[in-house]
Amino acid sequence: MLELRLVQGSLLKKVVESIKDLVNDANFDGSATGFSLNATDSSNVALVALLLRSEGFEHYRCDRNISMGMNLNIMAKMLKFAGNDEIMTLKADDGSDTVTFMFESPTQQTIVNFEMKLMDINSQHLEIPEVDYHAIVRMPSSLFASICKDLSSIGDTVVISVTNEGVRFSTRGDMGTPNVVCRQNTMVDKPEEATIIEMNEPVSLKFALRYMNSFTKATPLSSTVTLSLYSGQPVVVEYKIAEMGYIRFCLAPKVEEVDDEANP
To answer: Where on the tree of life does the source sit, at the highest rank (predicted)?
Structure first.
């Protein structure tokens, strides 16, 4: 049996909203260590990994490992029944083909139950590789989202380059070639407003902006985002979820035959 209780039920709502346009159907896995998801988009270009650690829940019980296949768009509609300040409880029995969500108002004046049919989903569990990245950039998530949105109005790809100058985001389109450079900035009043760059060696990679914009839907989950880059390898875009866990997106770079001419 799996039973978990979130005081801030809106957290799961934000998680589902951040990935439902990227992944249609996915398995949510419960284990002794926590509640997790590992899935790829339909094109097998992007990978999303979610972990909510067991100790982050007000109540967490998982008698044995359980996997629950869910349609994320249906799940998102169901979660709209929950107010942002409501307590959410999820229950699933071993061998059952349904999962039950319960939403309680803080005063317990209103209680909503929703039973959702589970799906049988065959999916491959892919791990995000652990490497010594050439560069790691930590920056405000709202700033990253704004840059991706603005660049997508000009072009459909973004080149992310990390040098001694800072981290540069650039694209190319019929209207021109915009470049946004973010320099390291730790002299701020709030740590979440800092831009921190760790560079072992310069790196420059090109990615599809439509995926980057999809990743930024996780911005409400965290005030900061971390970009981990390694030449020729997928980027890892990570949003910390308070002290509870994280959501990570992994995207392969675009490779073009005439790279020097393609890059802005």
So the answer is: Eukaryota
Task: Give, for 145, the enclosing helix (H) or strand (E).
Answer: helix 141-152
Contact present, 229 and 133 (Cβ < 8 Å):
yes
Contact 229, 252 (CB under 8 A): no
Residue 44: pLDDT band (50, 70, 90) is confident
Pairwise CA distance, residues 245 & 47, whole Å = 17
Amino acid symbol at 89: T
Average pLDDT, stretch 116-133? Answer: 82
DSSP state of 220: G
pLDDT of residue 256: 66
Quick one: tokens of 29?
A: 């896995």
pTM of full prediction above 0.85? yes
Length of the chain: 264
Q: Provide the sign of the torsion angle of the four alpha carbons 145, 150, 153, 156, taken in this order.
A: negative
Q: Which two tokens stand for residue 129?
A: 């590789």
* Distance separating alpha carbons of residues 189 and 151, to the nearest angstrom: 28
Please give the average per-residue pLDDT across 200-221, as a whole number.
97
CA distance 243 to 221: 11
Rg (CA), the chain: 20
Average pLDDT over residues 18-33: 94
What is the pLDDT at residue 171? 97
Contacts of 70 (CB under 8 A, 6+ apart): 25, 26, 27, 28, 99, 116, 118, 119
